[in-house]
Amino acid sequence: MRRSASIAATGAYLPERILTNADLEKMVETSNEWILSRTGIRERRIAAEGETTSDMGARAAQQALDQSGIDPKTIDLIIVATCTPDTAFPSTACYIQAKIGATRAAAFDLQAACSGFLYALVTAEQFIASGAHKTVLVVGAEKLSSIVNWQDRNTCVLFGDGAGAVILQHREGGRGIVSFDLGADGTQTEILSVPAGGCRMPITPEVLKNRSNFLQMAGKEVFRQAVTAMNRSAEDCLEKAGIKPKDLRWIIPHQANSRIIEAVAQRLSVDMEHFYVNLDRYGNTSAACIPICLHELNTAGKLKQGDLLLMVVFGGGLTWAGAVLEW
Ligand code: ACO
After folding, report:
1. Domain C-terminal end among 173, 207, 226
2. What percent of the chain has pLDDT over 70?
3. Whether 45 and 187 share a structural domain
C-alpha cells in the first residue's frame, strides 16, 4: 500500500545583503519604476562573498531540523534542487549532508531549473510512498548571483539568492501530495539557458569575453510559455485531485514576475488574495522560491492541517510542474 508523504518541517535562509532597485539603477541603465511595473520586484538578497549554495541550503535544512526536533541521523535521503551547484561534482546534496550531520542519508542533486523543487518534492514522495525511506530532506537552494550577467539589464534585475527546505515523513491519516504534474519541452532549451561552462561549450577566453557563461533569456517568449504551461499544469493537478480552485486555501506560484502570476490568476478565475507572493522581497530565487514561500506561510501560522495548496512552477528546460498538497 502507498504511504502518503506529509511535510513535517520547513526552513528557509535568505542572505543578509539586500540589493534594491535603487542599487541596480547605479549598476545598469534601469529604473525602480521599470523594474517594479514590469516585474513587481523591489529588492532581492545576494549571498556574501564565498557563501555557497550548500551553505544556504544547509542553513535552511538546519532550521527545519531545529523546528521539528528531527535528528539529522534519521534522514534517509537528501535531494537538492539547484541549477547553481557548489561544484559540477560532488553534488551540493553531499556538501549539505556533511554540514548538517545527516550521516545515514543518501544524497543527490536534481536539476530542473526553476521547476526543480517540485520535481524534487514529487521524487521524494515516491521514496516514502513505496516504503523505501521514512524521512527525506528536500532542499531548493540557489546562488543565482553567480550566473547572472550583471551587465545585462534584461536579466540582472530579476534574480536573487536563497534557500528553502522541507522534511517529508509519512503521517497517519494525512493525504500529502494529492496530485501532481511534471512536464518538459526539450525543443526550447535555447530561450532560457547558461550556454557555456558545461562540456558543450567549455570555458575559453572567447566565452569569457562574450559572457556566454552567464544566464541568457528571451524574456518575452519565456513569459508567454510560462503563463500557458503554469495554467495547463494547474488545471491538470486540479482535475486529477478532483477539486475546484475554490477548494484551495493557497496557490503558491513560481515567483518570477507578478504579471505572470496575475495572468495565471485570471485564467484560473481565482482572486489574487489566494496567491502567496513574496517576489517583491526576494525576486526569482529559482528552485528556492516554493520552499521559502512554504516556510513563510508555515511560520506565519497561515497553514492549518487539512488545507489544500496548489504549487505551480515553470523554468529553463523548458520545464514545468504542479502539485496539490494537503497540509
Ligand atoms: N530596465 C529598463 N528597461 C529594460 C530593462 C530594465 N531592467 N530590461 C529590459 N528593458 C527594456 C528592453 O530593452 C526593451 O527596450 P526596447 O523596446 O527599446 O528594446 C523594453 O524594456 C521592453 O522589454 P520587453 O522585453 O518588452 O519587456 P517585457 O514586458 O517582456 O518584460 C521581462 C521583460 C520582465 C523579462 C519579462 O519578459 C519576464 O518576466 N519574462 C519571464 C521571466 C521568467 O519567468 N523567468 C522564469 C524562469 S527563470 C529560470 O528558470 C531560471
Report:
1. 173
2. 100
3. no
Domain assignment present for 242: yes
Tell me the pTM.
0.96
Residue 208 Cα to ligand 1 middle (Å): 24
Active site residues: 114, 254, 284
Segment 152-175, tens digit of pLDDT: 999 999 999 999 999 999 998 889
User: Does residue 141 surpass a pLDDT of 80?
Assistant: yes
Same domain, 189 and 150: no
pLDDT over 80 (residue 1): no
Domain that holds residue 234: 178-326
Domains: count for the chain: 2
Q: How far apart are CA 315 and CA 140, in angstroms?
A: 14
Ligand 1 neighbourhood includes 260 CB (under 6 angstroms): yes
In 3D space, the residue among 154, 161, 213 whose CA is nearest the CA of residue 24 turns out to be 154
Place of cell 501532481: 180
Find residue 314's DSSP bridge partners: 320
Q: Which among 212, 164, 229, 178 is positioned nearest to 2, based on CA atoms?
A: 178
Give the end of a domain, one of 173, 206, 235. Answer: 173
Answer whether residue 304 shows pLDDT above 80: yes
